[in-house]
Design a protein that fits this description.
single chain, about 35% helix, about 25% strand, eight-stranded antiparallel sheet
Length: about 190
């Protein structure tokens, strides 16, 4: 009787561990635009600048003003050329949003991506890092870039001048204390 009870308890334990192992991370963040906008809302009066978000919509002219906006995943080549997200990897995303400085993209460019499968997060971070490291800059070069993960479901990359990137670093952890800085590099 004791053996049967021990086997039954072991079976229940194994099944419960298997059930827990199949669940991925959870988040309360609705989408990448919400993530970027919540960080932007933390910027102080002396830190903000004119900014535009998104890819301009179907007409190419409907950018969000002073807010992040959705960036269509069907525009993979533009996402790669502007934000260094590899076009070949876009199928691994659920959605994306962007926000750039209104005068000069190299002063501040932020992109947030919701990954379709959290198991791809680390590989996508590496791909974005490689893309930013090899990017050819026009009209001036940004000083640095950072990459964060939030809840293992979001990747956020920001490049720009030191002041704007450092402000972002301060405010992302105010908005999302669970945000993890995974890459910080100067652009040479």
């Amino acid at each position: 009787m004791k053996k049967i009870l021990a086997i039954l308890m072991a079976t229940v334990l194994v099944l419960s561990l298997c059930a827990c192992g199949g669940k991925g991370p959870t988040t309360s963040i609705k989408d990448p635009a919400e993530l970027l906008n919540n960080v932007w809302a933390k910027f102080g009066e002396n830190e903000v600048f004119m900014a535009y978000g998104g890819d301009g919509g179907e007409d190419g002219m409907s950018f969000a003003e002073n807010a992040a906006g959705a960036y269509s995943l069907t525009n993979a080549e533009a996402l790669e050329s502007q934000f260094a997200f590899p076009a070949a990897e876009v199928a691994k995303l659920e959605s994306a949003a962007t926000m750039i400085h209104g005068m000069m993209v190299n002063f501040y460019a932020a992109a947030a991506y919701k990954v379709a499968d959290h198991n791809n997060t680390d590989a996508l971070v590496t791909s974005i890092k490689d893309g930013l490291a090899s990017m050819r800059w026009m009209c001036g070069q940004p000083d640095k870039y950072v990459i964060y993960t939030v809840d293992d479901l979001y990747i956020v990359s920001v490049y720009g001048n030191t002041m704007n990137v450092d402000n972002f670093k301060t405010h992302i952890v105010e908005a999302y204390p669970q945000a993890k800085l995974v890459v910080e590099e100067a652009i040479a």
